[in-house]
Amino acid sequence: MAVATVNLRALTSWVGIARLFAVVLSCLTFSLVASTGQFESPYGTWCMFTWCFCFTVTLLVLLLELLELYPLLPLSWDDFTSAFSMLAALMVFTSSVIFPVTFITGPCSSNQCARQAVATTASCLCFLAYAVEVALTRAKPGDISSFLSTVPGLLKVFEAYVACLIFSLLDKYSGKPGLVWCVAVYSICFIITLLIIIFTIGRCLTYIPCPLEKMLVGYNFLALLMYLTTTILWPLYNFRGQSRPDPCDSKCWWNKHLGVTFLTIFNLIAYLVDLIYSTRMVFVRAPP
Q: Around Cβ 236, how many Cβ atoms within 10 Å?
């Protein structure tokens, strides 16, 4: 029977301090927003879910490391914490942008608006706490013991998250072969990237009967080519001969398709950087 021991370094190390700040700031953020009662829309629900989810998982990580119970879990702990901190940073950053744009309008003079402004500030600071954790836990050059803490591993989390944002903006794409191809590219790359993340955390990559590093280089190259086609086809099919409607709010198809266009470009750049780093890790060896 395993006996829990207390490891205070889980709280006093720089990574532990960053996590403590993230816990306090995320709790402060969703508490302030909940006190206003203004988060009923889909965007507000997403923001509240983000802050509550990040608070819960970060607190759980702190407790497991404090009591040194994480070795009992059947997963790669370093990969899990690296992937989560990257995901949390992206989610909190998105919420820090969406919440004030959606809920803070006009001059901020009421008590409710003041609480929303403080919540936005706390959310931005929470993002910085997760960004510091990502920086502190990122693998040093040449260290590949924890894949998801390397630059290619962190980029995998970024690519999967951006794909999720793209899916949230998709609406009308049927009937046009070019747009159907774009959605297929988003889906295929998302599924493969997500499987890589899951298999890495679950320590299942060793069962793949082929050189993993070279397979990832090949996948990144293929994904880069596929995203290159979507970068061309998506705006071509959506905006050719189309003018921006007036008025055009956040639910307008033009704004959604424009958002997909920019997110596609972001993922294209991410896969390009991923390919460069992965190629260097496989084919360019550091001198002994």
A: 11
Higher pLDDT, 254 or 132: 132
**Burial, 185: exposed, middle or buried (Cβ in 10 Å; 0-12, 13-18, 19+)?**
buried
- 3-class SS letters over the chain: CCCCCCCCHHHHCHHHHHHHHHHHHHHHHHHHHHHHCCCCCHHHHHHHHHHHHHHHHHHHHHHHHHCCCHHHCCCCHHHHHHHHHHHHHHHHHHHHHHHHHHHCCCCCCCHHHHHHHHHHHHHHHHHHHHHHHHHHHCCCCCCCCCHHHCHHHHHHHHHHHHHHHHHHHCCCCCCCHHHHHHHHHHHHHHHHHHHHHHHHHCCCHHHCCCCHHHHHHHHHHHHHHHHHHHHHHHHHHHHCCCCCCCCCCCCCHHHHHHHHHHHHHHHHHHHHHHHHHHHHHHHCCCCC
Asked whether the beta carbons of 145 and 27 are under 8 A apart, the reply is no
Residues, the chain, total?
288
139: Cα within 13 Å, side-chain hemisphere? 21
In this prediction, residue 256 has a pLDDT band, given cuts at 50, 70 and 90, of: confident
pTM score, two decimals?
0.91
Confidence of residue 287 (pLDDT cuts 50, 70, 90): very low
* Pairwise CA distance, residues 66 & 62, whole Å: 6
How do residues 74-97 score in pLDDT, each as one tens digit? Answer: 899 999 999 999 999 999 999 999
Are the CB atoms for 150 and 144 separated by under 8 Å?
A: yes
Higher pLDDT residue, 233 or 141?
233
Taken in order 228, 234, 240, 242, is the CA torsion positive or negative? Answer: negative
